[in-house]
Every structure is written in structure tokens, then in C-alpha cells.
Amino acid sequence: MKKVVEELEELDFTREANMFTGPYDVIAIAEAESIDHINNILLNDIRHNPGVRDTTTCVKIERKIVKN
């Protein structure tokens, strides 16, 4: 898992990558210009990584700032 996180961190579009317990071992946040760009990232960069078995994509549609 650590190697996958390190490799994701090296990609320009990755904003955050972390290891988790539970149903997902790694969760990464990426930024792209369009849905087509996200698709290209998944097909050409992430899914070709031998340490990635499966992906689930969630698209943020609204930004909310939470203040403490």
C-alpha cells in the first residue's frame, strides 16, 4: 500500500493520497480539468499501476468550507 501511495503522490494531478483501514486501503484526491481528463487519468495512470486492484471514483460537485 505504501508504494501505491508514494507513486500516486508523484503524479501531478494528485492532491492527496493516504492509507486507510476498512473497505478501501488507499484513498487519493485528484484534480482534473474535466470528466474526460479524469477518465484518462484512471485509464492511463492509476489502473496501470500493478498495486491497484480496483478503483471507485467519486466526483465532487460542490465545495463547502467548514470552519471550526
Automatic annotation (TrEMBL):
List the Pfam families. Answer: AsnC_trans_reg (PF01037)
Q: What is this protein called?
A: Transcription regulator AsnC/Lrp ligand binding domain-containing protein
Name its species: candidate division MSBL1 archaeon SCGC-AAA382A20
InterPro entries for the chain: Dimeric_a/b-barrel, Tscrpt_reg_AsnC/Lrp_C
Top-rank lineage group of the source organism: Archaea
Q: Give residue ranges for domain Transcription regulator AsnC/Lrp ligand binding.
A: 2-61
Question: Highest lineage ranks of the organism?
Answer: Archaea, Methanobacteriati, Methanobacteriota, candidate division MSBL1
